[in-house]
């Protein structure tokens, strides 16, 4: 143990997180603390669905990190024929826009590990998170 006296913790709720550390974490991407949640139902065409999911989350990342978006947050939806795909991306507001993009790109890259072919999923981290579902779980803008 290099720093035995350091203390840290994160509590995740549905709509927020509380983070504490005895070391300065502001403006730094937390690559260590993350977990996966997914809908147990599978989609009928996983390859196409996974491509559409990644496209939606990538589009929302651009929206969340575009110049002037101080919230580092975006929601949206994508038509999948008769169904819709709903998505949300979010970063903690201590990150700069470029760090938020890097964080979201990193966790979106984990889609195959977490949620391959699932109707819904989340990667929740200490600095950023995403969620997607085939039902509306948040108001989209």
UniProtKB/TrEMBL annotation:
Belongs to the cysteine-rich repeat secretory protein family. GO terms for cellular component: extracellular region. It is found in: Secreted. This is Cysteine-rich repeat secretory protein 38. The keyword Repeat applies. PROSITE patterns: GNK2. Its main location: secreted. Residues 31-137 form the Gnk2-homologous domain. It holds the Pfam family Stress-antifung. Keywords: Repeat, Secreted, Signal. InterPro entries: CRR_secretory_protein, GNK2, GNK2_sf.
């Amino acid at each position: 143990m290099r720093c035995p006296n350091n203390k840290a913790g994160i509590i995740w709720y549905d709509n927020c997180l509380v983070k504490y550390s005895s070391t300065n974490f502001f403006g730094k991407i937390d690559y260590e603390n993350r977990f996966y949640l997914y809908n147990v139902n599978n989609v009928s065409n996983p390859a196409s669905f996974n491509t559409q999911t990644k496209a939606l989350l990538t589009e929302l990342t651009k929206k969340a990190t575009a110049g002037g978006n101080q919230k580092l947050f975006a929601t949206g939806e994508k038509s999948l024929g008769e169904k819709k795909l709903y998505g949300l991306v979010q970063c903690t507001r201590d990150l700069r826009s470029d760090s938020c993009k890097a964080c979201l790109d990193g966790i979106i890259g984990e889609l195959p590990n977490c949620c391959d072919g699932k109707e819904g999923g989340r990667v929740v981290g200490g600095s950023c998170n995403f969620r997607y579902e085939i039902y509306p779980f948040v108001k989209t803008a």
